[in-house]
Amino acid sequence: xxxxxxxxxxxxxxxxxxxxxxxxxxxxxxxxxxxxxxxxxxxxxxxxxxxxxxxxxxxxxxxxxxxxxxxxxxxxxxxxxxxxxxxxxxxxxxxxxxxxxxxxxxxxxxxxxxxxxxxxxxxxxxxxxxxxxxxxxxxxxxxxxxxxxxxxxxxxxxxxxxxxxxxxxxxxxxxxxxxxxxxxxxxxxxxxxxxxxxxxxxxxxxxxxxxxxxxxxxxxxxxxxxxxxxxxxxxxxxxxxxxxxxxxxxxxxxxxxxxxxxxxxxxxxxxxxxxxxxxxxxxxxxxxxxxxxxxxxxxxxxxxxxxxxxxxxxxxxxxxxxxxxxxxxxxxxxxxxxxxxxxxxxxxxxxxxxxxxxxxxxxxxxxxxxxxxxxxxxxx
Length: 380
Prior knowledge:
380 residues; alpha/beta; Nonspecific Lipid-transfer Protein, Chain A; five-stranded mixed beta sheet; five-stranded parallel beta sheet
């Protein structure tokens, strides 16, 4: 359990940070700075001892400090951050100094150490405009993340889409449920202890599977909606991918992200999902997630396929007309994504065509589930 952070902890951490800059600081002098800080109706007394080698933090009161300051804890932090001008602080009585104020020059204001060498991974032209710079992918991998693998509706609706893609390139289907992927423990070993290597590297399949996917130019992430999002096995897979990025932060398309350890400038993705509910709004959580994932992985989304009431279309003969049109459109979408790097709007509209729900449709669905109780025949 993480301990509470006290005002004294804050002050000590600030001094420790300053100490990292102090060895190359050009102004060093022996003395002390006393702080009397008010916080939540309490007074916190602490001081900094300085010499030509280090800055040392101490609690309590030192006799005859070189300089002292009285303020609130927050005003002291603002002063350290440069958000509070000392002159304005004095005039507004936010800061009260006593002693030799020039002694504050012993505290470094700028980092003088060598800058951190951050890996270069700028925004690519393909990332900005994948359609304009599209090249037919040499290999596609479909990662079916349904825990039911070949038994689920995800696999069924994937078949025509894959069939369309196979007309123009090599396609491999991988069923994630057949691999062992442990959940990330948040230990940061892959960033701090053994950079790029997860503690589970030799204990599960994540590394080998990630290497396999890295060889593909296009990855199709396919999954059913589980509990308003993706199945846990897919989220585990994505969480573990932190080991394949550096901890540093760089500018991205619209916000900060991490640079990649392994770079394939042709990488792109398709999101393919089905659900049992009637409304398209059920896909909004995964749409938002993959939009963020796309940015942070430097991998543009070139196609999105979402199909509601997947089981209802399959099992109800009265829905056969729409069902047939959807299957044909899925095959067309597979061809279009390989050739053009996008799916035509007309094709997407057919795939996602709204199911017009009749008054008794909910009763029929509930009856369908009720009939299967205790039979072990859960075709979903």
